[in-house]
Known about the structure:
The protein is α+β, with helices and mostly antiparallel strands. It contains 4 helices and 8 strands, in the order ββααβββαβαββ. The site of coenzyme A has 22 residues, from strand 5, helix 3 and helix 4.
Amino acid sequence: MIIPEIEYTLKDGRKALIRSPRDEDIPGMLDYLYQSACETEFILRYPEECGKYTAEGEKALFDRMNASDRDAMLVCIVNGRLAGNCQISWSNHFKTQHRASIGIALLREYWGQGIGTRLFQELIRIAEENKNVLQMELDFIEGNTRARALYEKMGFRISGVRTNAIHLKDGRFLNEYSMVREIKR
Ligand SMILES: CC(C)(COP(=O)(O)OP(=O)(O)OC[C@H]1O[C@@H](n2cnc3c(N)ncnc32)[C@H](O)[C@@H]1OP(=O)(O)O)[C@@H](O)C(=O)NCCC(=O)NCCS
């Protein structure tokens, strides 16, 4: 789905724009996918796994997300640069259509500016406006205190743990925590 554009000011005074992705965002999205993988171990891809992302693939993803009534992607643009993005999706199966899944990541330079909070406000609005959606769900990797703080602030609570869900190249295993937020109408 396409969301209305939102302009607002970051904590440091820069102007930010939240909107649905467009073709002009493809180079920025490819840079973001690689750079974010270099900057944090709390997302699932390693930098060397980013070769599979192509301009054609991103265009197809943007087009599918924008045309869908069960998926939305939101990008945040700061001074013309793609700072990060988030997505919300729910299935078309009756048994699971009440569960919306969420993902979010920003480039490190833009952490702590309130972008995550503003994106989540919009994700919650989208979920609330879709009557089939009764709960929002997400996962975070053990140790990601910044993400956990954002999610708890936005009303999510831990609902489970997947032991040793993440295997890092240095041999460590990390748990993954699931969180849920009920939709109140
Ligand atoms: C997790 C992430 C999306 C948060 O977005 P953000 O824009 O940095 O978050 P915000 O600035 O809106 O801050 C949200 C809350 O986090 C908390 N927070 C801020 N800085 C923090 C820090 N250094 N440590 C712990 N919590 C912190 C605060 O409670 C803050 O709320 P407040 O500003 O009202 O005090 C972002 O940091 C990110 O992209 N990280 C890397 C990728 C990632 O981990 N993605 C999530 C995978 S599950």
